[in-house]
Amino acid sequence: MAGGMAIQADTKDYGGKITMFVLMTCLVAATGGLIFGYDLGISGGVTSMDVFLEKFFPSVYKKMQDDTGKTNQYCKFDSQLLTSFTSSLYIAALVASFAASITTRIFGRKVSMLTGGIIFLVGSALNGAATNVTMLILGRILLGIGVGYANQSVPVYLSEMAPAKLRGALNMGFQLAITIGILAANLVNYGTAKIKGGYGWRVSLALAAVPAIIMTVGAIFLPDTPNSLLERGHQEKAKTMLQKIRGNQEVEEEFQDLLEASEAAKKIEHPWRNILKPRYRPQLIMSIMIPFFQQFTGINVIMFYAPVLFKTIGFGDDAALMSAVITGLVNMFATFVSIGTVDRVGRRMLFLEGGIQMLICQILVGVILGIKFGVEGVGSMSKSSSYLVLFLICAYVAAFAWSWGPLGWLVPSEIFPLEIRSAGQAINVSVNMFFTFIIAQAFLTMLCHMKFGLFFFFGGFVLIMTLFIFFFLPETKNVPIEEMNNIWKKHWFWGKYIPDDAIIGVHHTSAKVSDY
């Protein structure tokens, strides 16, 4: 079938109002993204501070002080110990996401958020007080457990609370919080780098406690979702909560569909075994491929190491940190574009446009670095060339921020049926964290050995992922979360995997969605 061809999928419009209650709960829940964002932004900043490098990573500091012009610019930061500091968080988050899926299913989404916030708080205190590399990495591991719990529970919570017509925009509150966290971290790094006395890095790391406190306190006051309440047998509470979040007493039709989904879910004793069945193949493939591709856009290379990268291509210390602030601002404001358009133009359009824009920017950055530094990595860059690279990186970040950034969390969180939703989200988070770990661990070595070719490497993946979305992802905008199987059933490739009994709440009224 041709890409973009429209078909009729049987989905319902349950009606209901957009209530202040649901907006506030989603806003509070989305703050769970702050801890992840702050951490993404803070680690690259402190690892570009000389006083931090001198104390914990003296070999890197020595290379940075070599101004003979003979040092390979691509290899200055190549240190496995340094990358272990950054990437240990992500392997911890990977493992924690599986524990979080059990917590989320048995105790509810809010308990997972609360747990994540508390553990992240302890980790931030340990990092701020660190006196050696062991304390630093132990603190990072605790931060990782907190991130694993938050990233497992928050996107699912938002998708379950939001009405279908606004699910995309409200779920993207999570990505917006991530971008705010990154920007806040960049601003903090810029400020703390100027602190005299050499303890600025401690302030940067310890201030991770602020987003942790916001998330923890917020989680205490959050209600649980109707889906989670039904999953745990609280039928009346679930119906009352559904009426409250929809602002309407007439929720019987939606409640019956949720109840039907919940009854089906209770028959599944082993969600981890069941998720491997053919009927869940489309969702399983997406929960693996989307987070895999999200990391291989190369975005975390920019976010972890933006100050390091800008320092490498010729910006000074302050300029490198300020350039990271600029990319952080672009990241945040571009996310608003996605929030405003995702439920109108759809997920596919944003994925495809963002992919094309990222690909163009990566190729151009690779070409410029290749011309200026060559294969040897020795050379310098003029101010005009440095600013051009900064502009291209900002254009790349903007494209990511309205496509793969938010949609990489939104789409996997909205496509799973209730019976395997916690397991599915755990796979999504663990795959995301595993490849974040791989990229974080390998990037500085890859930059050293692949040099400017690294940007072509990620550009190749962006081309592949854009084609993958074009052919294999159906449009999910405005489709009620418990009726998502309807669009998989209609898809040219995935339809054969979805049995007729998997279609919930089939209705005579049709809603137009895109075939792909």
UniProtKB/TrEMBL annotation:
Record membrane topology: Multi-pass membrane protein
UniProt keyword Transmembrane present: yes
UniProt GO MF annotations: monosaccharide transmembrane transporter activity; symporter activity
CDD domains named among the record's database cross-references: MFS_STP
UniProt similarity note: Belongs to the major facilitator superfamily. Sugar transporter (TC 2.A.1.1) family.
Protein's cellular compartments: Membrane
Major facilitator superfamily (MFS) profile domain location: 25-477
One Pfam family named in its UniProt record: Sugar_tr
Originating species: Papaver atlanticum
Transmembrane domains' residue ranges: 20-38, 89-107, 119-149, 169-188, 200-222, 284-308, 320-342, 354-375, 387-405, 425-447, 454-473
Protein's name in the database: Major facilitator superfamily (MFS) profile domain-containing protein
GO CC terms in record: membrane
Keyword terms of this UniProt record: Membrane, Sugar transport, Symport, Transmembrane, Transmembrane helix, Transport
